[in-house]
Specification:
Elements (H helix, E strand, L loop, with lengths): L2 E6 L3 H14 L3 E7 L2 H11 L3 E5 L1 E2 L2 E2 H7 L6 E6 L3 H10 L2 E4 L4 H14 L4 H13 L6 E5 L4 E5 L3 E7 L2 E6 L4 E4 L3 H8 L4 E5 L2 E4 L3 E5 L5 E4 L4 E3 L5 H9 L3
Parallel strand pairs: 1-2, 1-3, 3-6, 6-7
Antiparallel strand pairs: 4-5, 8-9, 10-11, 10-14, 11-12, 13-14, 15-16, 16-17
Helix pairs in contact: 2-3, 4-6
Length: 249
């Protein structure tokens, strides 16, 4: 099955390179249009109604985010293309919206395309809404999007009690006792959530400090969480954990 796409980027060479790579490595994608800015991009989206939009962030007449703000509905999957922008990339990770760093790596391109096709259009609006919030304030995130095989879960960070790793998977445990299994490593979430009140206590465990009940010093040390789970503390992490928990109010 062929899926339609448009490319919105103010640099002609960037559009040409991306179109070439899509033609060569993503035969399931048909590029049906191009645009060089916000206004022309809006017209192309409304006229052509593509399945996927490859969207540059910074353009001469505005940003890719401006296009999303001006649309009444998001009826397509968005794959952002961007130069290295730490602020935007953190927002993408929280909202689980795909992005490609320029110059675009072919392997990353094919993965992003396969993921967009597999997800279809479901939950695209929720992801974009979360992205808008994340872009405006990456210092104090309140929600995160978690991908599973079935759906995209938009979750409040305050509802997450802890995360536990299993090889390349991570299980999120929530206050209401439900669980969500995602196909990303604990290391990924440690890097993403460490500035949002989460602490890595062990190779396999990441906890939300809001839900810490007690630190038990005996038996090598472990943490009792509000859901009554006991979380081990590795010898390497013990000093850091004691210091952080001692400072909690």
């Amino acid at each position: 099955m062929v899926h339609t796409a448009i490319i919105i980027d103010d640099i002609l060479k960037a559009r040409d390179f991306l179109k070439r790579d899509l033609n060569s490595f993503c035969p399931q994608i048909e590029v049906i249009g191009e645009a060089e800015g916000v206004l022309t991009g809006l017209k192309a989206i409304k006229k052509l109604r593509p399945d996927i939009v490859f969207l540059d962030i910074n353009m001469k007449d505005g940003s890719g985010f401006d296009i999303l703000e001006l649309l009444d509905e998001i009826h397509f999957k968005v794959i952002f293309t961007t130069a290295s922008d730490a602020h935007a990339i953190k927002a993408f990770k929280f909202s689980a919206v795909d992005y490609l760093l320029k110059p675009i790596d072919v392997d990353e391109l094919t993965k992003a395309v396969e993921k967009a096709i597999a997800q279809g259009k479901a939950d695209g609006q929720k992801q974009v809404d979360l992205l808008r919030d994340s872009v405006s304030n990456t210092e104090k995130m309140e929600k995160i999007a978690l991908h599973t095989a079935e759906k995209i879960h938009i979750c409040e960070l305050s509802d997450i009690i802890r995360c536990e790793s299993s090889v390349n998977y991570t299980t999120f445990y929530f206050e209401d006792q439900h669980k969500v299994l995602v196909t990303k490593t604990l290391k990924f979430y440690d890097q993403l959530l460490s500035s949002s009140g989460f602490l890595r206590t062990h190779q396999s465990h990441l906890i939300n400090l809001v839900h810490v009940k007690e630190f038990i010093k005996g038996d090598g040390g472990y943490i009792l969480m509000n859901d009554s789970s006991n979380i081990p503390v590795s010898a390497r992490k013990r000093a850091e954990v004691v210091q952080v928990i001692s400072g909690l109010k």
